Amino acid sequence: MSRTHPIVLITGATSGIGRHAALHLARRGFRVIATGRRQDALNELRDQATLETLILDVTCADSIADGVADVERLTGGYGIDVLVNNAGYGSVGPLIEMPDADVRGQFDTNVFGLLAVTRAFAPAMQRRGSGRVLNISSLGGKVTFPLMGAYTATKYAVESMSDALRMELAPFGVHVVLIEPGLIRSRFFDTATTGLPTYTRPDSAYRAVLARSASLRRLADLPAVGPECVSHAIERAIVARRPAERYMAPLRTKLVLLLLRAFPTRVTDYALGKAMGMSRASAELDQMPGDDAPSSL
């Protein structure tokens, strides 16, 4: 890296992991450019730390182009040293009932938006011969959870694209790193459940399971930790002379992954399904309209 404290641009910095990382890095002396779609949230960030903010919608080509121009202006033509692709969201819902628009929306932000921003900022790193791209993935990029198939599919895509980008950009001195958070306390679940009324309608086979969203939230929060562990992982990936290909946060996420992989697929399927109230034994899925027997997975 060419600077003692690199210039770091973070997408999706208005909430959750991105917001905490922006404040953490700014307070550690990094020059942070925090971006997002909400000006009011960006203003709040500036009130809490010394950093710069830009409006940036990763799904809009014009917004990305404006962001590149703004960064050139802010940095005197230098650009950025580190890109943190954090913008993303998930929706809870059964894939068989999820509208195409909802599925495409998650891919537009989590996958195509990430790639578009990387294409916009990485070429300057290639020309300079140094830089880092940190892609925020998830445990969901390695383990598929029922009712979160669309979201986990996007994170599997992020994992694969990051592996390809790592090999493609390495000859130019650009490191591509995956940050893989486990269960983190944030507003992620609040956003993910906003569309639940669609699937709790009377004709949905999943209405009984999804009506228990508050219980599912409590279940997810039990092992969750604060976002600070992810911010520390991001910092380590930035300052390391030779960063690792992947950083899991918290480290116990790796133990969860090893445990899940130690059992046959049918066992983990049963365990994850039961945890979500979807196992055959729980008998909590509603009857499909016109069926004589309860549906099950």
CATH superfamily: NAD(P)-binding Rossmann-like Domain
Please state the second-level CATH architecture. Answer: 3-Layer(aba) Sandwich
> Distance N terminus to C terminus?
51 Å
Order of strands across the main sheet: 3-2-1-4-5-6-7
Question: What amount of the residues lies in strands?
Answer: 5-15%
Q: How many structural domains in the coordinates?
A: 1
Radius of gyration using CA atoms only = 20 Å
Q: Characterize the largest beta sheet: strand count, sense, and whether it forms a barrel.
A: 7 strands, parallel
- Rough shape? globular
Helical content (DSSP H or I, runs of 4+):
40-55%
Unreliable segments (pLDDT under 50, ≥5 consecutive)? Answer: 288-297
Could you name the CATH topology?
Answer: Rossmann fold
CATH class annotation: Alpha Beta
Give the averaged pLDDT, no decimals. 87
Notes on the structure:
- It is a single chain.
- By secondary structure, the protein is of the alpha/beta class.
- It has a single domain, classed as Rossmann fold (3-Layer(aba) Sandwich), CATH 3.40.50.
- It is 46% helix and 12% strand.
- It contains 11 helices and 7 strands.
- The chain has a 7-stranded parallel β-sheet with strand order 3-2-1-4-5-6-7, sandwiched between helices.
- Helix 3 packs parallel to helix 4 and helix 4 packs parallel to helix 5.
- The longest helix is centred in the middle third of the chain and has 29 residues.
- It is globular, with a radius of gyration of 20 Å.
- The C terminus is likely disordered.
